[in-house]
Specification:
The complex is a heterodimer of chains A (480) and B (357). Chain A is α+β, with helices and mostly antiparallel strands. Chain A has 16 helices and 18 strands. The chains are: A alpha+beta (480), B alpha+beta (357).
Chain lengths: 480, 357
């Protein structure tokens, strides 16, 4: 037995140290299945000290590592590194503390997003960020990638709901960033850490802010015969001074997919569906609903439904939340992008995507957070048809460039990860990226933590290698 | 004392490259933060002023860092919008840049969040003289490191801000304020906790010692009477109602933070710190905002005494006004993470308040 792996074996018992090929297979990829890499080994720590031990081991042997929760990253953020260590955090899945009076929850990184709201529900509280992956995605991953969801315009993203985090830095040192207070008296170090895609370390204990559950919802589903009309309706809602919790649009392809998957009862022939949801105190929501209904009535919707019960509301949302996976029924493979455009450019962006779709001969389904301009074009392709994946990727790239050209962003909530790092220079200058890189190097001079993500090109060329791990070549480690 | 007046990011870059130690000053409304230490060159930032982009339909405003808050708020108000983090010191000439660098929010942060929750993009000059951009100009963005948030509360230590982008929201069409006095602090705190955990949506939830809650409601005018009634019933106690011009004036006056003589100090805390603080703070004029997460305090005594007091409660404070070079008091939140990031952005210590050793 070689030295380095032997040391790892002393740190982690069998069953929590995986290094046989069969054991590694489930960890080779995340939700961005186009990428695949085989880690040297997987460790499954059960507490903070074991994470420290794993990170120190990596620092000692200069082995790059990736922390991973449920592996739902759509940007390849939790893709392992060939020959690196994968630190699986799913066993650190405890709710450490729930304080309904102070309205906070302290969780381990492997705790599931939706479970936070479930735990808080008896106290009339909930955790606001609601990525579509919330039944499976973990808080640790949500934090690393600053996950969004359908309610970001009004409530913000994950970073607006994380109060503090205990973090293992890439050299194995532990720090606490943030506090239980919503306020701060110095630089917002925690704000920098959240969304840093695992490049600054691993959070092992996370303090979340809980919000009181809204008293009443008013959920409207409006059907349109053109996508443009749905887009204009969103602009009209905003112009009316209302601030809905969510505004979502689905196009006909997405509607077809959602219907086939969960039978949400959507009007199937619609070219576009708009979901608008108001929430808040009952008298206020009732008054706002009268304005909203008027705006929707005038927007040219040919059918309008208002959820009359909690069940009807959930049914409306079920179709929307299932839309992604449902598209899988229409096509063997698909790529999903999450670029953002200014809301006023939504119509232009969608028209351009339609044009690109025709030019590339690939179908594109659109499901998007209209309230915050966050697009989600789903590019359908068949990986078994020669050249189709490459065409789909090229089309995806054109859509990202379009978003930047319209004044938006290459990613609203999925993060850069592996997938979009080549597009970072579209959005940021070399100087901007250099400054970010300097921060990264100050915290992780060897670039061990989630190496190869976010920054364009090959990070730290001197440290990158293909083929066997240097320790492997030297006979120090082996893969069996 | 040397004072420079840059009017463009390029001139800020030039000034930083040419001087070994610099400090930025905006409107000078927080003199403890903008008074230079010995040997520091002052960069007077008001020459970098003006709104660059504002489309009310986007809920996004982009402006140069030296733009006075008053100018921004006036423009937003013309379109029925506002800065939801409710920055203080508007009438005293505070600027966007100074507000972000100091990390200051006001009572209405209760509804939607503080300055960190509304900053979208930032452009700044780092300690090497590079002009750096982070974040973006759209309300949702996850690309790159969140440099905009990092700059909130950075006190000019990581970079000098030149341009900022914010998310803005529609201001409620009607507002009303209810002041409810209790006999004892414990009763007021009990009501505060109940309110903060309830679905009642308050724009402000302030506690004024000894035991008065000041609650601000906002929304559609037709719903307000019913909501006020429900609020009073929920608290179980009648209060004094402020509406119309008197209400507007009340909050505008409070925005000046003229609480009393001496140092003006901001303290970050949580509700559960209040009972012990109330025992210790004596007669110092003060106001707790945002359900007890933000305290502004006037301290007319030795600063060291307040420093000790905050330490004993594991709290940190920031001095905004009053003569001192010790800006941050109470517990030291500085640690290796921050030191490394600061060294990355300002390797030569140009923004450090202390002269190089």
């Amino acid at each position: 037995m070689n030295l380095a792996l032997g040391e790892l074996e002393r740190l982690f018992p069998p069953g929590r140290l995986l290094h046989k090929p069969g054991e590694l297979t489930p960890y080779e990829s995340d939700a961005l299945t186009a990428f695949r890499a085989r880690p040297l080994a997987v460790v499954l720590p059960e507490n903070h000290d074991e994470v420290v031990a794993a990170v120190r081991w990596c620092a000692k042997y200069q082995v790059p590592y990736v922390a991973r929760g449920s592996g739902t990253s759509l940007s390849g953020g939790s893709l392992p590194i060939d020959g690196g260590l994968l630190i699986g955090l799913n066993r650190m899945n405890k709710l450490l503390r729930l304080d309904p009076q102070e309205r906070i929850a302290v969780v381990e990184p492997g705790f599931i997003n939706l479970q936070v709201s479930n735990a808080a529900a008896p106290y009339g509280l909930y955790y606001a960020p609601d990525p579509s992956s919330q039944p499976v995605s973990t808080i640790g991953g949500n934090l690393a990638f600053n996950s969004g969801g359908a309610h970001c315009l009004k409530y913000g993203m994950t970073s607006n709901h994380v109060l503090a985090a205990k973090v293992v830095l890439p050299d194995g040192e532990s720090v606490v960033l943030g506090s239980e207070s919503l306020e701060n008296t110095g630089p917002d170090w925690l704000g920098l850490f959240v969304g840093s895609e695992g490049l600054m370390g691993i959070a092992t204990e996370i303090t979340l802010r809980l919000l009181p559950k809204p008293e009443t919802y008013h959920t409207v589903l409006a059907a349109y015969d053109t996508l443009e009309k749905a887009g204009e309706a969103v602009a009209a809602v905003v112009a009316s001074g209302l601030l809905p919790g969510a505004m979502e649009i689905m196009d006909s392809l997405a509607i077809e997919a959602a219907e086939a998957a969960v039978k949400a009862g959507y009007p199937r022939e619609a070219r576009a569906l708009l979901i608008v949801e108001l929430e808040g105190e009952t008298p206020q929501v009732e008054a706002e609903a009268r304005y909203l209904d008027e705006v929707i009535r005038r927007s040219g919707a040919y059918e309008v439904r208002v959820a009359q019960s909690a069940e009807e509301r959930l049914k409306i949302w079920k179709g929307r939340k299932a839309a992604f996976s449902a598209v899988g029924r229409l096509s063997p493979d698909y790529i999903v992008q999450d670029g953002v455009v200014p809301r006023s450019r939504l119509g232009q962006a969608l028209a351009e995507i339609e044009r690109l779709s025709a030019r590339y001969g690939l179908r594109v389904a659109n499901v998007f957070h209209a309230g915050d301009g966050n697009l989600h074009p789903l590019i359908l392709y068949n990986g078994r048809v020669e050249g189709e994946l490459e065409r789909a990727e090229e089309l995806a790239g054109e859509i990202l460039r379009l978003c930047v050209a319209l004044g938006g962003s290459i990613t609203g909530e999925h993060g850069v990860g592996m997938e979009k790092k080549a597009y970072m220079p579209e959005m940021f200058s070399e100087t901007d990226l250099t400054a970010m890189r300097r921060i990264r190097l100050a915290l992780d001079p060897l670039e061990l933590s989630n190496r190869g993500k976010m920054f364009p090109g090959g990070e730290a060329p001197a440290l990158r290698q293909t083929g066997p791990h240097p320790l492997e070549r030297a006979g120090v480690i082996s893969r069996e | 004392m040397r004072v420079l007046h840059p009017t463009s990011p390029a001139e800020v870059q030039e000034a930083i490259r040419a001087h070994s130690r610099v400090r930025a000053r905006g409107g000078g409304s927080k003199p403890a933060l903008s008074t230079p230490a010995e040997g520091q060159t002052v960069l007077e930032m008001r020459g970098l002023s003006g709104v660059i982009e504002y489309d009310p339909g986007e809920y996004v405003l982009v402006a140069r860092a030296g733009t006075p808050l008053a100018e921004v708020e006036q423009l937003l108000a013309q379109h029925g919008q506002y800065l939801p983090f409710d920055p203080p010191l508007v009438e005293q000439g505070a600027t966007l840049g100074g507000t972000v660098a100091a990390g200051l929010s006001g009572p209405m942060r209760q509804r939607y969040g503080g300055v960190r929750d509304f900053i979208l993009g930032v452009q700044f000059v780092d300690g090497t003289g590079q002009l750096v951009r982070g974040g973006g100009k759209v309300v949702k963005n996850a690309a790159g490191f969140d440099l905009p948030k990092l700059m909130v509360g950075s006190l000019g230590r990581l970079g000098l801000l030149t341009e900022l982008a914010f998310k803005v929201f529609p201001f409620p069409k009607a507002t009303a304020t209810l002041q409810i006095s209790f006999f004892k602090l414990e009763e007021a705190l009990e009501a505060l906790y109940r309110l903060a955990g309830s679905p009642i949506e308050l724009y402000a939830l302030d506690l004024e010692p000894p035991a008065t809650l000041t609650l601000r409601l906002g929304g559609l005018p037709e719903a307000l009477p019913a909501r006020l009634e429900r609020l009073t019933a929920f608290v179980g106690r009648a209060g004094d109602l402020l509406q119309g011009e008197a209400e507007t004036r009340y909050w505008r006056d409070l925005n000046r933070l003229e609480l009393g003589e001496g140092y003006l100090v901001k303290v970050a805390l949580t509700t559960r710190h209040i009972p012990a603080l109330e025992q210790a703070l004596g007669s110092a004029p003060r106001r707790y905002m945002s359900a007890g997460h933000l305290l502004y305090l006037a301290w007319n005594d030795e600063l060291a005494q307040l420093d000790t007091l905050l330490r004993s409660q594991s709290l940190s404070g920031l001095v905004l006004k009053g003569s001192t070079h010790q800006l941050r008091i109470g517990i030291d939140l500085e640690q290796v993470f921050g030191q490394r990031v600061a060294a990355a952005l300002d390797p030569q210590g140009r923004f450090s308040p202390a002269p190089p050793q």
